From TrEMBL:
SUPFAM superfamilies reported in the protein's UniProt record: Ankyrin repeat (SSF48403)
ANK repeat windows: 62-84, 122-144
Keywords: ANK repeat
The protein's name: Ankyrin repeat-containing protein
C-alpha cells in the first residue's frame, strides 16, 4: 500500500495524498524514506506543504532528510519550506548545504547558510564539494569555510587543483590564507596542480588538452613564487616537477634546488633526461652530472631507457662508464628503450653483462623490444646468464613470440634447474609462446608440462592445452592448431604424476591442481577430466580436505564429481563413501559442507550409512 502512496506523490495526485495522509503519515519504506522525502525529491511543492507537519525532521536509514532531497535537486522553493530540518546530519555527516553545493545551486546555498562550517566524517565542507565540481560561483557564498581543511588537511584550493577546476583555482589563489598550506603528505596546491598534468595529457581532444595545459601554466606561474620551496614527503622538488613535465625551468629553481634527490635518489637531471626536457638537461648538467640514484642509475641511463637521443648525447660522454648496482651498463638501458641510434653509439659495450650474467639482449627481450633484439641477436645470442638461461628461455618467460624466431637453434637446452624454454612458458603462463615452443622442443624432456603449469597456477596455458587436445573442439573458434600441436597436447593430457616432485604416482593434472591450491586451474581442468573415472577416489575428495582451495573451485568440482563414491575401500573408508562423508569426518570448512549437502546428503556407503550418520 505504501507504494501506492508514493506513486500518487510521483504523479502529483494531491487529492489521493490528502485523503490518505492519516493512513500513511507514520510509514516509511524499507530504506526509511517518507512520502515527504519523495515529494521533496520529485519537486511536488503542494504535497510537501501537505506532508510537512506530519513528516518533518524524519530521516531515512542513511540519515538523509527531505530537506537534503530538495537541496540535492536544487529546488529552492521546497528548501525554503523545509528549513526546519536545517542542521540535521546524515550518517556520514552530510548536510543539506553540502547537497546543494555539490550541484552548484546558488539559491539553495543562500538559504542554507546556517550550516556553513559543518563538516562530514571526512572533514569535508560544502565548499570542498563545490570546488571539486567546479562551482566557482559559490566561493563568495561559502567564504567562511575558506580556511577549513579536511581530515587529510587538504584545503579547498587543493581540492580544486586535484579536480582540474581551473576557474575555481583562479578565484581561490587570490586568498593569501590558502597559499603555502600543506596536507598530511606535505603536498601544496602547487604540487597538486603539477600532479594533474598527467591526467590532462590523456585527454583525446587536442584543443581541450592544449587549453587546459595553458591554464595550468598560468596557475603555476601564480603559485610558483609562493610555494616553490615547499616539498612533499616523497621529496619531489618543484624543480623535478618542471623537469618531468618538460617545462622550461626557471633559473632560480636550478640555483636553489639542484642536487636534491627524491626518495629513490632520483635527481631533476634524471627526470629531465627521461622526459626529453633538453633545455633542462643543459641547465642541470653542470650541477648533477655523474649522480646516481639508489639503484645506481644515471641521467644517461634514464635517457637511454626512454630512447631520448638528444638528452643522451648531452650526458653520455661524462657518464658512459658508470654501472648500476646490479652491474648493468648504459647499453642494457638502451636495449630497453629500443632506440637503435643510441645503440649505434654504444657498440663497444656489446657483449657486456651485469652481475647476474644478463646481456643487453636479455634486457631487450624483457622489454619486448623487437628492433633491439634484431640489432643485438647476431652478437649476443650465445650469451647465457649465471642461471644458464638462454635468450630463447627469456623469450618464453616474457611470452615474447616475436623474439623466439631469432633463437630457434637454442631449443632443447636446459638451465641450471633443468628447465627448457617450453617449461618456462608453461610456468609463466606464456600462451603466445607455448605451442610453438612445444613443437620445437617436443616431449622428450618435457613430459610434466601440465604439472609445472599447475604448480605455478598457469591456468591460461592449461586451457590452451585442453582446447588443443579436445577432439570435439568447435571449428567456429578453432585457433588453427597444427596436427603436431594437437597430438602433443593430447599426449600431455594423458601423462600422470609419475616421478614429478613429491606427488604420489598416478595423479592427473586436476588432482595436482587440487593439492597445489590452484583454484583457477581446477576450474579449467575439471570439465576435461570429469570422465577420467578409473581411480578409486575423485578430485573432489582431495578438495574437501584442502583448507585453501576457493569455494568457487569446490563448486566446480561438485558440479562434475558430486555424488560419486569411492570405488573400493581406501584408508578406512568404505566403498561408496562420498566427499561429504570425508568432509564431515575430517572437520572441513562449514561452507564446503554446505555446498556438498545439496548433492550428497542422501548418498550411502557400502554399510548403508549416510553423511548424517557420521
Amino acid at each position: 500500500m505504501l507504494n501506492t502512496f508514493f506513486q500518487a506523490i510521483q504523479h502529483n495526485d494531491i487529492e489521493f495524498v490528502t485523503q490518505n495522509i492519516g493512513k500513511f503519515k507514520d510509514m516509511q519504506d524499507n530504506q526509511g524514506n517518507t512520502g515527504l522525502m519523495v515529494a521533496a525529491y520529485m519537486g511536488r511543492t503542494d504535497i510537501v506543504e501537505i506532508l510537512k507537519s506530519s513528516q518533518i525532521q524524519k530521516q531515512n536509514k542513511n540519515g538523509f532528510t527531505a530537506l537534503m532531497s530538495a537541496a540535492s535537486t536544487g529546488n529552492d522553493q521546497i528548501v525554503k519550506i523545509l528549513l526546519d530540518e536545517v542542521n540535521l546530519r546524515a550518517s556520514n555527516g552530510t548536510t543539506a548545504l553540502m547537497c546543494a553545493a555539490q550541484i552548484g545551486s546558488v539559491k539553495c546555498c543562500q538559504q542554507l547558510q546556517k550550516e556553513i562550517g559543518l563538516k562530514n566524517l571526512n572533514g569535508v565542507t560544502a565548499l570542498h564539494l563545490a570546488m571539486a565540481q567546479g562551482h566557482h560561483c559559490l566561493i563568495n557564498i561559502l567564504i567562511d569555510e575558506l580556511e577549513i581543511q579536511d581530515i587529510e588537511q587538504r584545503t579547498c584550493l587543493m581540492i580544486a587543483a586535484i579536480n582540474n577546476q581551473f576557474k575555481c583555482i583562479d578565484e581561490l589563489i587570490k586568498h593569501q590564507c590558502l597559499i603555502t598550506k600543506q596536507d598530511i603528505h606535505k603536498k601544496t596546491a602547487l604540487r597538486y596542480v603539477f600532479d594533474s598534468i598527467d591526467i590532462i595529457k590523456d585527454i583525446i581532444d587536442e584543443g581541450v588538452r592544449k587549453e587546459k595545459l595553458e591554464a595550468i601554466k598560468s596557475i603555476i606561474k601564480c603559485l610558483l613564487p609562493l610555494e616553490y620551496e615547499l616539498m612533499a614527503d616523497d621529496m619531489v622538488s618543484t624543480l623535478m616537477l618542471f623537469c618531468y613535465n618538460r617545462m622550461p625551468v626557471p633559473k632560480k629553481l636550478v640555483e636553489t634546488q639542484s642536487k636534491q634527490k627524491q626518495e629513490e635518489g632520483i635527481t631533476a637531471l634524471m627526470l629531465a633526461a627521461q622526459s626529453g626536457n633538453i633545455s633542462a638537461v643543459q641547465q642541470l648538467k653542470e650541477f648533477e652530472i655523474n649522480m646516481q640514484d639508489k639503484r645506481g642509475r644515471t641521467a644517461t641511463m634514464f635517457a637511454a631507457s626512454q630512447g631520448q637521443l638528444d638528452c643522451f648525447k648531452l650526458t653520455y660522454n661524462d657518464e658512459f662508464g658508470l654501472r648500476d648496482i646490479n652491474g648493468a651498463g648504459v647499453l642494457h638501458y638502451a636495449a630497453q628503450g629500443g632506440n637503435v641510434q643510441i645503440m649505434n653509439l654504444l657498440t663497444k659495450f656489446k657483449g657486456q653483462t651485469d652481475c647476474y650474467g644478463n646481456s643487453a639482449l636479455m634486457f631487450a627481450i624483457n622489454a619486448k623490444q623487437l628492433n633491439t633484439v634484431d640489432y643485438l641477436a647476431a652478437t649476443e645470442a650465445d650469451i647465457v646468464n649465471n642461471d644458464k638461461l638462454t635468450p630463447l628461455m627469456c623469450c618464453a618467460k616474457n611470452d615474447f613470440l616475436g623474439g623466439c624466431q631469432y633463437f630457434e637453434g637454442q631449443g632443447g637446452q636446459v638451465d641450471v634447474n633443468g628447465y627448457t624454454a617450453v617449461q618456462w612458458a608453461a610456468m609463466c603462463d606464456s600462451t603466445e609462446c607455448f605451442l610453438p615452443l612445444l613443437e620445437l622442443e617436443n616431449l622428450k624432456n618435457n613430459r610434466h608440462l601440465m604439472f609445472q603449469a599447475v604448480e605455478k597456477n598457469s591456468y591460461k596455458v592449461l586451457k590452451l592445452i585442453i582446447d588443443c587436445a579436445r577432439r570435439d573442439f568447435s571449428p567456429l573458434v578453432d585457433y588453427n592448431f597444427t596436427a603436431l600441436q594437437r597430438g602433443l597436447c593430447s599426449k600431455l593430457t594423458q601423462i600422470t604424476s609419475k616421478k614429478y616432485n613429491q606427488l604420489q604416482d598416478g595423479l592427473d593434472p586436476l588432482d595436482a591442481a587440487v593439492l597445489y591450491n590452484a583454484s583457477e586451474c581446477v576450474e579449467v581442468l575439471a570439465p576435461f577430466y570429469r570422465f577420467k573415472t578409473e581411480k578409486p577416489f575423485t578430485p573432489l575428495m582431495f578438495a574437501v580436505q584442502n583448507e585453501s582451495l576457493s569455494i568457487q573451485a569446490i563448486k566446480t568440482l561438485v558440479g562434475y564429481f558430486g555424488g560419486i563414491g569411492l570405488r573400493k575401500n581406501v584408508n578406512g573408508f568404505k566403498v561408496g563413501t562420498t566427499a561429504l562423508m570425508i568432509a564431515k569426518k575430517n572437520g572441513a570448512r562449514k561452507e564446503v559442507i554446505d555446498v556438498l549437502e545439496d548433492y550428497e546428503r542422501d548418498c550411502v556407503d557400502a554399510d548403508g550409512k549416510k553423511a548424517s550418520d557420521m
